[in-house]
Specification:
7 helices, mainly alpha, 0% strand, 168 residues
Length: 168
């Protein structure tokens, strides 16, 4: 299997994974956003996690437009974190920083959508929204660590098998 087919398979797998029962925010999308930033050299890297998210939303249903915009922006930000921290040398420290940074980016940005529709539109409302979202942040981090280990592990294994002398 070539790398393009592997990436397309991951997009479909990530989209389909959202169809199975899971705790809120324990999905592979954030990890896939990091992966896209880390491994996709094309500048359209940011579109892959958004495509997986859109496929999942088409299958599960759409929700508040404002919230969706900020959720998509949050995952785009996570992909940017992946590009910034993991597109060059990938070390365990960079991996942990990328997962934490991507999860925090998603949390901060996506909660702006909830603040917009469900909280007083002032700084106190935003802070309250972020505080109320802390349990979701913990689930996002847990899911991102789990799925990032799986996705990055699969790709690193594939690259090592395919390329003699490969070093990340």
């Amino acid at each position: 299997m070539d790398r393009t087919k592997l990436i397309l398979l991951l997009v479909v797998a990530v989209a389909v994974a959202r169809l199975f029962p899971h705790p809120f925010n324990f999905t592979p999308i954030g990890a896939f956003a990091l992966f896209s930033g880390a491994y996709i050299t094309d500048r359209r890297f940011i579109l892959l996690p958004l495509a997986a998210l859109l496929i999942g939303d088409l299958l599960t249903g759409f929700y508040s437009t404002i919230v969706m915009i900020f959720v998509y922006l949050g995952f785009a930000g996570a992909a940017a974190i992946g590009r910034l921290l993991l597109s060059g040398k990938r070390t365990p420290l960079r991996f942990v920083a990328g997962v934490l940074g991507g999860a925090i980016m998603f949390y901060l940005v996506s909660n702006i959508g909830m603040w917009w529709i469900a909280y007083p539109f002032d700084i106190n409302g935003l802070v309250k929204c972020w505080i109320d979202g802390l349990p979701f942040l913990l689930r996002t981090m847990t899911g991102d660590f789990f799925y990032a280990a799986v996705i990055f592990g699969i790709v690193e294994y594939y690259e090592r098998q395919r390329t003699p002398g490969y070093a990340s």
